[in-house]
Sequence to fold (80 residues):
Amino acid sequence: MAEETNIDKVTGDAWPKLLSPRERQIAKMIARGLSNKDVARKLGLSDGTVKLHVHRILRKLGAKSRHSLIVQAGIRSFHK
Fold:
């Protein structure tokens, strides 16, 4: 089984490589402050699908919340 990633160690350019293209897209939208519902509407997905993606992003990066994901991984600097 793969070792869980500690978000404190995954910063800068390293963390995006751990995510799928869709997960990176959603992470950027989270960084802009969009809710799951807003992300779902913009991407034409169900709320449940977005919730699943967010859960996977948090798990892959070892983050406990959306806030810690944004702050610790520095997603705001990644979003353009």
Observations:
- The chain has one domain: 19-78.
- The two ends are 34 Å apart (CA to CA).
- Helices lie at 21-31, 36-43, 47-61, 66-73, 75-78.
